[in-house]
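re: ur question from earlier - yeah i can do the single chain one, its not a big deal. heres the input i used so u can compare w yours
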Amino acid sequence: MNNKLYDKLIFELSRQGRRGYSLPETAFPDAVGSIPENLLRKSEIGLPQVDELTVVRHYTNMSTNNFGVDTGFYPLGSCTMKYNPKINEEMAAAPVIAAMHPDQPARFSQGALAIYHSLASALAEIGGMAEFTLNPYAGAHGELTGLMLARAYHDSRGDKKRTKVIIPDSAHGTNPASAAVAGLKVVPVKSLPDGTVDVEALAPLLDDTVAAMMMTNPNTLGIFERQIPQIAKMVHDAGALLYYDGANLNPMLGIARPGDMGFDIMHINLHKTFSTPHGGGGPGSGPVGVRAGLEHLLPNPRVVKKDDGTYDIVSSPDSMGRVSSTLGNFAVQMRALSYILSLGSDGLMEAGGLATLNANYIKESLRDLYDLPVDTVCKHEFVFDGLKDKSTGVTTLNVAKRLLDYGFHAPTIYFPLLFHESLMIEPTETESLDTIDSFIAVMRDIAHEAAADPEMVKTAPHTTPVRRPDDTEAALHPRLTFDEL
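and the output i got, formated as tokens:
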């Protein structure tokens, strides 16, 4: 057992009789007797017995073991772990925002409805769509909502045989998962070596049973899909809809709009593009936008601006239905709107350009030591296929773990599945040149270590509280409770 106090569990610090509080004697001693017997505990609750100072030190020290955007560089490819400006948090925490009840009548919620409508309108302009709903609770929930919209569109036209969704083999895993949950059959389409869709392979897949095709642009390798106009025409000629996975919208801000490319439906991950909190399972937000002609199908309820300038909450009988209990995660929406208003149109355009610049700068600075399977200009992210020198036996997993010793979070590894040793890096636009140069220097040091002392890298990390857990054992047999025995 480790002797460091801050490495122990709070139960291990427990000592019989210690207290971190002092409560007065109850003024209602007879009240306990009025509690029904079946509601009384039969034994002690089993909480650790520790003093207040120990509790404060324990959890403060434990918090320093957590890695996040506020503590270090987080180049997690495909997930866009960007800094969350504190002004966003201040706006979301304002009493007039945080204390609102979600079921307040519209006449008492005009400010909140104006925020909702303003964000939806801004996203519609950014995405080139006619209207957005902010109701979905997360990006994957947005995907599901978008695919349900596609089904509702075909069903409204009496076209019941469209039960398939075409998805590139390089897509994010949530794409086929969302399609399956929506009751649609997944039809994969092959990608070319650069990760872009193989148009020739797509053609024979398009028939009158296809409801939609899902695409991410730039794709999972950070490469812009140049054949979008042709693909859009092919999909529409087949009577299907084109769906935009907004996971990689970040570099497109102010540069290109999915609606202008021919997409009919899109979702946006507010945490990826508009700097809201990410990770831990939520809270999230996955707004969904549609082109003109599909607005009536958006989920209920909708926020509309009336002719007199006030806002109302309405429901449509033609809607696909409800996807959330209210109007989505309002505090997250407030954060996103704060970010958009803080940057303005010029700032948003600069953000996309800087994300692209930073990614290409890292790629070009490391290409002599890391294997670059797609040698072209990327957008916001790119993928290495492990170290260039394969003779060392050092894998992408080893490199990722060694990064932890240097204080950097690992990039995404072993995704996309197009390459055996994928190492996917996305710096975002919020990192300084100093931070990026430090990351490049560490990546170069690790490559040199792999050549000179491969065991040093293979046995990493060496400085973290937990070193190399058995990932399979942890997944199959997790320890979810503390057992003194």
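The mean pLDDT is 93. not sure if urs matches, ping me
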